[in-house]
Amino acid sequence: MPDVQPLVNGFLSQLKKRKIEGSQATAKQTAEVLRSVISQQRLPHTNQAGALIDAVRAVGEQLIAANPVEIAVGNIVRRVLHIIREEDLSLATDAIAGLGISAGSDDEDDVEQDDHPVLSAAAVAAAARSTLRPPSLQTLLEDMPDSAAVPHTSSSGGESEGKSRSDKGSRGRKLKHDVIEAVNDLIQDISTCHEQIAEQAVEHIHHNEVILTLGSSRTVLEFLCAAKEKKRSFRVFVVEGAPRYQGHVLAKDLAARGLQATVITDSAVFAMISRVNMVIVGAHAVMANGGVIAPVGLNMVALAAQRHAVPFVVLAGSHKLCPLYPHNPEVLLNELRSPSELLDFGEFSDCLDSASGAGSLHVVNPAFDYVPPKLVSLFITDTGGHNPSYMYRLIADYYSADDLVVKGRTTAGS
Amino acid sequence: MEGRRFPRTVIGPKVRQVGFFAPAAPEPSSVEPDPVDSSSPPLLDSPVSNSLSPVMIPPPRHLSERTAAVPVPELGFRRQASGDFIHIGSYNPSVSLLGPLPAGSPSSRVGFGDGELSEESSTAGCFRRSSSGSFPGGGFDMSSLKHPENLVGDNFAMAGELEKPVGGPEKEEEVAKEALHDPLSCLELLKTKTKTTKVERRALQEAQRAAKAASKAEGGKVVAKSNRAAPAKYSKESLQRKGGPPAASPMSTDKKVSDHPFEKEKKKDMPPPRMQFDDKNRVEKAKRRAIVNQTEATNRVELFRHLPQYEYGNQLPDLQLKFFQLDSVHPAVLKVGSFYLAGDILGGNARCIAMLRAFQGAIKDYRTPCDKTLDRDLTAKISSYVSFFTQCRPLSISMGNAIRVLKSRIAKLPPSYSESEAKTTLCSDIDRFINEKIVLADKVIVGHAATKIRDGDIVLTYGSSCVVEMTLLHAFALGKQFRVVLVDSRPKIEGRSLLRRLVAKGLSCTYTHINAISYIMHEVTRVFLGASGVLSNGTVFSRVGTACVAMVAHAFRVPVLICCEAYKFHERVLLDSICSNELGDKEAVARVPGRMDLSSLDNWTSKDNMQILNLMYDATPSDYVSMIVTDYGMVPPTSVPAIVREYGREYSLI
C-alpha cells in the first residue's frame, strides 16, 4: 500500500490542477492507477473481494473528490469495482461448478495456459448472468431487494468465505490476477474505443454530406477520417469554440487529413445549421438519462439543430457513460474557468471585486454545457448506436448498482 | 455555485409579460391594450401623429416622463465621453462625428492621419471648386451620356481611369489633352456632341420601347428579367459607363427606361436585386469599373460564391494612392468610404448618418452642368457615390432605405426651384431625415423600451447596439435596479467596449461569450437586441449571433425584445442567412489577439481544403421575437409588413 501512495498522490495533484485534459486520457490514467492499487494490495485469506473493493473505493473516493467534474474518473472507479465483483462472482460459480465435477480443475497454471477465455471473464460472467436471468420485470424485482437488502461486502464476503476454505492461496492469487487482466482489458478498451466507433462511420455519413462539429474530440476526428478513407467526400464545418479555440486545432487536423474543413465562428452556428445535414460531436460525459455533458456551446448547437431538424449525433466511448442521473447539471457538473480567457488581465480588475462600488462586474466562463436527452438524436458508442432513452440500460451492463454511490457508504461509515 | 442562481420565479415561470404590459405603471389602463385607444394620437414628438393605422400603439402611459426624461443626460454623457475614445459601433447624435466635413473627426484610426486627411480633402475640394468656378463646363459629370466621344469628358475627369473605347484610344487621349489646355474648345465640342447624342438617344429609346412591347406581348419573360436587372445596374454603372455603340449595350437602354417616370414608379415598389457574385460576367464588369481594388480571396467558401469574398488589408492604402485621381468622387464621400473600408464606422445608424452627411457635403458643392437638369444629374451622381460605397462595404438596409428616400426627394423637387433652393431643400431634408428617423426615433424607442425593464430584472444584450445601450443607460438613470448580462462574440469583440462604457457609468454587469449563452440564460429575465434591419416577414436581420441568442432565449422562455428604428424596416423577405449576407475578414477569425499559444490556423491559406467563414449577419426567425420596439410603438413581428406598407410611403413625404 505505501508503494502506491506516491503514484496516487501524483495523479491526485494532476487532477486538482486540471493538468489532464480530455476524458480519455483521464480514464486511462485512472484505470492504470487503480490497477497498481490492486496489484499492491495484500489480500487477506477471507473476504478477498471485499478487501479489494474497499481499497479501490478508498482511492477512488479521493480521485473523484480531486476533480468532481471529470466524470470519467468516477466512471472508471465504478467500472473497476464492477469488475472485481464480476470476477469474484465468476470464480464463485466456477468453484461451485468445479466442486461438482473436479475440485482441482481450475488451478492457476491451467488459467495461465488458456488465458483467452479468462481475459473476458467479466463479460463471460455477465453473459452467464444474463442467460441465467433474462432481463424481465420478474428478475428485476427479484434482483433489486437482494442486492439492496444485503450489504455487498458481506454477501460476497460470505460467499467467498464459504468457498475459500477449500483453496485459499490459489484463489486469492487468481482473483487478483483475473481482476488485473480485466482492468488491462478495460484500459485496452479505452484506448481503442474510437476505432470501434469509427468503424460505424460509413453507416452514417453519405456522399456530399455537410457536417458540423464543435470542440476538439479525437473520436470525432477518427470518425470523420474513417468515412473519408471509405472514399466518401463531404465537407465539415468546424465551430471554433470561443475561449479555448479547439476548433482551430480540429480544423487543422481535418485539413491535414484531406477533408474539406471550414472554420466558422460560434455566432454563425444558427446561420449555417440550415445547410448542415448532420451534427456530429464528441461528449465530455453521457449521463444515465441520455443527457450529455459537453464542451460549452453545444446546447446552442443542439437547439439550432433541433430547429432545423438536423440529426444531432453524439460519439462517446463507453468510459464516458456515467451511471448517475444529473440534477441541475449546468451548475453542479460545470466548471468556471478563468476570466482572463475573455478579458485581458488588468483591464477591468478594479471592477471585478463587487465590493468596490455599484458598478460590479462578473465574468462568466463556464467550461461545459448540458444537452438534454430530447435534443440528442443518436448516441454512437463502441457497442453501436443507441437512442438516448436506452442509455440507462446500456449503463447497467457496465456498472453494478451497489457502486453508484462511491462516496456515500464510506462517508456514512467513517 | 448553487447560491449564484436564484429561483426562476422572478419572472414567473410561464407568464410572459411582454406586449403592452407596463410593469412600472400602476395605472390599470396600461395593462391591457385597448384597441380603441390606439386611434388617439400617439407620442407628441412622433412624426406620424396624424396618421391612423391598424398597428398603431396605444399612447404612452407616462407621456411626461418619456418626453421629458428621454435621454438628455445620456447625450451629455456621450458627448463628454467621446473625447476620450472612439465610439465604434454607436453613433452619437449630438457629437458631430462627421458634421464639419474635412475637420478632424474622432475616428483617427484610419490609415492616413487625421490632419493629413483634412488637408488633403480640403485641397482637393479647393481644386474642384476653383476648376469648376473658372470653367463651368469642366466640372460636370458626363457619365450619363453614352456616346464614345463623351469619354473625352470622362477622361478629363478621371485622368485615364477608364479603359479606352475600341475606336481610337490615341485620338481620344489627344483630344482629352487638348481639352485640358483649351477648356473653351472642349466645351464647344461637348455641346455639339451632346446635342447629337440627345437626338440619337431619343430615337433609340423609342426603338427600344417598341421592341420591348413586342417581346412583352410574346412572352414577357425577358422583359421581366431585364427590368429586374435594371435598377442595380443603374446604380452601379452610372459612375463610369463604358463607351460603345449604344444600341449594343442593353444596360444603357435599361437605364433610360428606368429614367422614365412611369417605369420608375412601378419599379420603386420592388427592391433591386443584389449583385450576385457567382455571375462571372457581371463580376468582371463590376471589377473593371471598380474604384477600390479588391483582390479575390483564396480559399473561398463554396456556399457563398454569390457574395463578394475579398482579401482584406490592401484596399485602404490603394484608395489613398488614388486620392488625387478620383475627381468623380467627392472628398467627403471618399473619406466616409475609406472609413467604411477601414471598419472605423460600424453599426447601421452610424453608417447611415455618415453616408447622409457625406451626401450633404457633396450636394453643397454640387453644380448643375449647364445642359442638364439637376434632378437627373444629381441622382446619377448620388448613384455613383452609392456604388463607390458599395465597393467599400456592402450597403446596410438602413443605408439602402436612406438612399431611396434621398433619391425620391431629388426626383420630387419642383422644377421651378433654382439650384441653390434645391440644394438647401435637399440638405435640410437630409437633416430632417437624420433627426426624425434616427435621433428622435431612438429617443422614442428608448422611452418605450425602458418601461420594459423592471426592478430586479436581469437584462441580456448581445454585441453592442447603440439603441440598447441608450435604453440601458436611460433605465439606469430612471433609478431602476437591474443587472446587465453582456454577451460577446468573436471576431468583432464589440461587447467589450460597451462593457467599458456601462461599467464606467456604474451599471452592474456580467460579461460572457456566446457559447455560454445557455448557461447564463437561466437567470436572465429580458433579452434586448439591436437589429440591422427588420424584413417584412418578421425576420430580424442583425449582427451574426443574434439568432443564436434569440433561439436560446426562446428555448428558455425569456422574452426577446428587438429595438429597431422603423426606417430600417424593409419590404424584402429572407428565410435564411445564406442568400444575403456579408463576409468579413477571414484573417480576423484565424488570428486570436492575445493568444500566442494558438497557432493552428497560421498558414491556413496554404491549405487547399481549408476555409474560414466570417459571416457578418444572420437572420432571426420571427417566432423567436417577442416584440419589436420601434418609433411607432411596440409591435409584434407580424406587424412589420403593416408598418412597411403604411409608413413606407411616408418616407417620400417627409
TrEMBL record, chain A:
Under Gene3D superfamilies, the record lists: Translation initiation factor eif-2b, domain 2
Query: What GO terms are given for molecular function?
Result: guanyl-nucleotide exchange factor activity; translation initiation factor activity
Which GO cellular component terms, listed alphabetically, does the Swiss-Prot or TrEMBL entry include? cytosol; eukaryotic translation initiation factor 2B complex
Please give the chief subcellular localization of this protein. Answer: cytoplasm
Task: Name the InterPro entries on file.
Answer: eIF2B_beta_subunit, IF-2B-related, IF_2B-like_C, NagB/RpiA_transferase-like
Instruction: Give the residue ranges for region: Disordered.
Output: 147-174
Annotated Basic and acidic residues bias: 160-170
The compartments listed are: Cytoplasm, Cytosol
Against PANTHER family, the record matches this protein to:
TRANSLATION INITIATION FACTOR EIF-2B SUBUNIT BETA
Please describe the quaternary structure of this protein. Component of the translation initiation factor 2B (eIF2B) complex which is a heterodecamer of two sets of five different subunits: alpha, beta, gamma, delta and epsilon. Subunits alpha, beta and delta comprise a regulatory subcomplex and subunits epsilon and gamma comprise a catalytic subcomplex. Within the complex, the hexameric regulatory complex resides at the center, with the two heterodimeric catalytic subcomplexes bound on opposite sides.
Family of this protein: Belongs to the eIF-2B alpha/beta/delta subunits family.
Q: What is this protein called?
A: Translation initiation factor eIF2B subunit beta
Organism field: Acacia crassicarpa
UniProtKB/TrEMBL annotation, chain B:
Superkingdom, natural source: Eukaryota
Composition bias (Low complexity) maps to 22-54, 210-224
Q: Which InterPro entries match?
A: IF-2B-related (IPR000649), IF_2B-like_C (IPR042529), NagB/RpiA_transferase-like (IPR037171)
Comp. bias (Basic and acidic residues):
253-277
Q: Where is this region: Disordered?
A: 19-60, 210-277
Q: Which Gene3D superfamilies match?
A: Translation initiation factor eif-2b, domain 2
PANTHER family in the cross-refs: NAGB_RPIA_COA TRANSFERASE-LIKE SUPERFAMILY PROTEIN, TRANSLATION INITIATION FACTOR EIF-2B
- Protein family membership: Belongs to the eIF-2B alpha/beta/delta subunits family.
What name is this protein filed under? Answer: Translation initiation factor eIF2B subunit delta
- Lineage of the source organism? Eukaryota, Viridiplantae, Streptophyta, Embryophyta, Tracheophyta
